[in-house]
Structure formats: C-alpha cells, structure tokens
Design a protein that fits this description.
Number of strands: 18
Radius of gyration: 18 Å
Largest sheet: 6 strands, mixed
Order of helices and strands: EEEEEEHEEEHEEEEEEHEHEEHH
Distance between the termini: 32 Å
Shape: globular
Number of helices: 6
Helix content: 10-25%
C-alpha cells in the first residue's frame, strides 16, 4: 500500500470558498456522476441536510454532491447554492417533472471564531462549485476548515487552530481517500499516539491533555463546551452500494478515534460520508480498513497544515 494524491482516486471535483475575515467557509465534493453514498454519525450534536436519503432503506441510489460547511445549523442554507449550480447544468435525479440535484450536507460549529453573524450561504456554496476542479485542494485554513479549532475543553483561550486535510492510499488498483474538516473538542494525536495539537497549557507554551483535565473534573453538570464537530468524506474507486458504504463510513470513524481524544462526545456532531466513485470490484472490509487509515492521516495533516489565525496558535508556530 502506498500514499497517492487525493484526486488520483478519480470521479470527483473539490471546491473551496471562504470568508477569511468572518472565519468561515465551505467545501463541496461534486461527483462526476450520481454516486452511491453512505453516512455514519457518531457525535451527539449533528447539523445535516438530506441525510435520510442515505439510509440503506431509502429509495435514492446515489447523490450528486456532498457539502461540508461552517456556520452550525445556520449554514444549512448553503446547500441551495450547490443545487442551483447543478440545476443550471441539468444535473440531478430525474423525477419526470424536473431533474432534482441530490446534495447531502453537514455543518460544523465555527461561530465562536471570527464573526458569528456571517455564515456560509447559497452564494458561498455556489462559488465553491465554480472553484471546484480536479487539482489537489488547498489544506489548512481553507473551505470548511477556515474556522476550525481543536482542544476547546478549557475554552477558546487555550484552543489551537485546525483546518482541512486530505490523504489517500492505493493497494493494487484499489484507491481510497479521505477529506476532513477537523473541529474537535479534543486533542489530535500523531501516529505514535502522542498529542500534536489541542488544549494548550496555561502559559500557552505547549500542550496540556484534554483527557487528563477531563478526568480531574468531578462535576460536569454544566456540560462540555460546544462549538465542535469534525466532518469527513471517504472516496473510493471501488463499486459499493450504499449499505456497504454505510459500513465503510462507520469503519472510517476508527480513524477519528485513533487521532482525536476524546471523540464522539455529546458536544461533537462527528459525521463521515462515504462515496463510491468507480467501478472497481472491492471488498467492503478492505475499503473500510484503508478508509480508517486515510482518515487518521488526513486529520493529522489538517492540523499540521493550519496556520495561526483569529488568535489561535497553529501547529507550525507551536513547534517553531
């Protein structure tokens, strides 16, 4: 197995749009053709649109696009911009009366960074579609990663900047990749299991440990701090139906669990989509294992690519 570029998986385009002053943005994945998709939500606070059509018992056999957005539930309006872009190009599910673009969307909470009164909307999502291409997408402070942060257990004053990341793997002819906007309550760990970004110490000279501080607290009656949610998309050239893709999305959450600690809390809306973009025969277990590994590494890349911004320290600056 070897690393490849995310766009080598094939069958899709990626586009970012963002408002750097307001610290928010969105990222669209446009499928070259209507593609089977699955979804697995593990966090307790998701914000999503057209998620039910991905249920294995729903009638829809595929979707046209996935949108990852900032803005919390306010950002759900943005999917309308993707629909308009696709409708203008006569792309969508044929109903007999009209072609209806099927766009699934999930939002993360970035209202605590930048401006809370400016959120991604239809215009921004339409711009992301116009920006979409087959070249490698920007990582770090871009698209849905613009307002992302990690390590928020003690508030934004000790959090760190995170962002958007990608990673892809190939085994034989099978290709599996991950795209992720990392906006977690917890810390992010490297392949050796050691934290590389997250909760800063009180002096902001290095890292503390969210898990250790969590375990010190006896009374959590006030609840965990909100403002989180990590959003991921798995892409593969394997031909899988949405039942198997739902399993792949679930297995990809193992990548979240390896890289983010704690993860899947009630204060996170952690979600992963999985898209089948090719016709290669592929085993769901192999694809799922590769997806988890790609997702883990994409998460690490997201924080290592992020630059300091909005009063939040980035990985590069912390380690310089």
């Amino acid at each position: 197995m070897r690393e490849i570029g995310i766009m080598e998986v094939g069958g899709f385009r990626v586009g970012h749009a963002q408002d750097l002053d307001a610290a928010t943005g969105c990222t669209v994945i446009l499928c070259d053709r209507m593609s089977p998709a699955g979804l697995d939500v593990r966090g307790g606070g998701p914000a999503s649109r057209e998620s039910q059509i991905l249920s294995p018992v729903a009638a829809a056999e595929g979707i046209n696009a996935v949108l990852l957005s900032g803005g919390s539930a306010f950002g759900l309006d943005a999917a309308g911009g993707v629909q308009r872009y696709l409708e203008e190009r006569d792309i969508g599910f044929e109903t007999g009366a009209a072609r209806v673009p099927l766009v699934s969307q999930s939002c993360l909470f970035d209202l605590g960074v930048g401006r809370k009164d400016i959120r991604p909307g239809a215009a921004m999502a339409y711009a992301a579609c116009e920006n979409a291409g087959y070249g490698a997408p920007a990582q770090g402070n871009a698209g849905a990663g613009t307002g992302c942060s990690v390590g928020k257990y003690r508030g934004m004053g000790r959090a760190m900047k995170s962002g958007f990341g990608t990673y892809a793997l190939q085994a034989g002819t099978l290709k599996v990749g991950a795209l992720v906007a990392v906006n977690a309550l917890g810390d992010v760990c490297g392949p050796d299991g050691q934290p590389i970004a997250g909760l800063l110490n009180e002096e902001k000279t290095g890292l503390s440990s969210t898990l250790e501080e969590l375990f010190r607290d006896v009374d959590l009656a006030a609840g965990l701090p909100g403002g989180n949610t990590t959003l991921g998309v798995v892409v593969t050239n394997a031909r899988l139906d949405k039942t198997r893709l739902t399993k792949v999305a679930g297995m990809a959450h193992n990548g979240y669990a390896r890289a983010i600690r704690p993860v899947h809390t009630t204060a996170d809306g952690d979600s992963i989509y999985a898209l089948s973009l090719g016709d290669l025969p592929g085993d769901v277990n192999v694809v799922g294992v590769m997806a988890a590994q790609a997702m883990e590494r994409a998460i690490v890349r997201a924080v290592q690519s992020a630059r300091s911004a909005y009063g939040l320290t980035g990985w590069r600056e912390l380690n310089s």
